[in-house]
Design brief:
Blueprint lengths: L9 E8 L4 H4 L13 H8 L1 H5 L4 E6 L3 H9 L6 E3 L16 H7 L5 H4 L7 H15 L4 E7 L1 H11 L17 E7 L2 E9 L8
Parallel strand pairs: 1-4, 2-3, 2-4
Antiparallel strand pairs: 1-5, 5-6
Helix pairs in contact: 2-4, 7-8
C-alpha cells in the first residue's frame, strides 16, 4: 500500500441545471443570450432548497447567466456562490435562438454534436471550459454545487469520468434537475443523473 498522502478531492459534485425559460420550453437554442427564468422556472428553482439541504457545500459555483444565478438564489445558495464564466452555456453563434427545425431548414440533417455551429463555439472549446472548472474543483475538500446549463453540464459529466465530450449527446438533463458526480473507489463516477423527483407534486 502506498504511503503517499491522498490528494484532496471533492466528495461529491452536485450538478444543478437552471429552471425553465420561455426559450427552453420553445425548443430554442439558448446559449449566451441572457434570458430569465419564466414563472414555471422560478417555481422549479424554489423546490431546490429542500432537495439540496442534505449537503453542506464547501464550494458553490455558478454560471454568470441570470437563469442560473436566479436558480441558485431561489435554492438559497447565492450568498455562497462564486460566479465562474467558464460555466456559461455553449455559445451557439448564428444558431442562437433558433429551433432545430429552423436550423435544418437551411442545413438538412444538422446535428449539434456532430456539425457544430456557425460563428460560435466548437465542442472542444466547451469541453476545455468544463475541464478548467473541473481542475478548480479537484482541490476542494467536501461537497460542491455547480449551477449551470444543460449541454455544458452534460459535457462536464462526461469529462468527469474521463470520456470524450461527444458522449454527452447521449444523455439528457431536464430543467431544475439534480445530478451527482462522485467516486467508485479511486475512479470518478456518475452517482445520480437527472433527478427531478423534487418537482413532482406530493401524493
Amino acid at each position: 500500500m502506498s504511503s503517499e498522502p491522498a490528494q484532496p478531492r471533492p466528495r461529491q459534485v452536485v450538478l444543478v441545471r437552471h429552471g425553465a425559460t420561455e426559450w427552453a420550453q420553445d425548443g430554442r437554442h439558448t446559449g449566451w443570450t441572457d434570458v430569465p427564468l419564466n414563472h414555471d422556472g422560478r417555481r422549479q428553482a424554489g423546490t431546490l432548497g429542500a432537495r439540496l439541504a442534505q449537503w453542506s457545500f464547501a464550494a458553490v459555483l455558478c454560471s454568470p447567466l441570470q437563469r442560473a444565478v436566479a436558480t441558485c438564489e431561489l435554492a438559497g445558495l447565492r450568498g455562497e456562490a462564486q460566479i465562474d464564466p467558464d460555466l456559461r452555456e455553449w455559445n451557439y453563434g448564428g444558431y442562437e435562438g433558433m429551433t432545430t427545425a429552423e436550423i435544418r431548414a437551411g442545413r438538412p440533417g444538422w446535428q449539434l454534436w456532430d456539425d457544430g455551429v456557425i460563428g460560435g463555439e466548437m465542442l472542444a472549446q466547451v469541453a476545455a471550459r468544463a475541464d478548467r472548472v473541473m481542475a478548480k474543483l479537484r482541490g476542494v475538500h467536501g461537497d460542491v454545487a455547480v449551477f449551470a446549463h444543460g449541454p455544458l453540464l452534460r459535457v462536464f459529466a462526461t469529462r468527469w469520468i474521463g470520456q470524450p465530450a461527444r458522449l454527452a449527446q447521449f444523455v439528457n438533463l431536464s430543467t431544475a434537475s439534480v445530478s451527482t458526480l462522485g467516486w467508485e473507489h479511486e475512479w470518478p463516477s456518475i452517482t445520480l443523473w437527472n433527478d427531478t423527483s423534487h418537482l413532482r407534486a406530493p401524493d
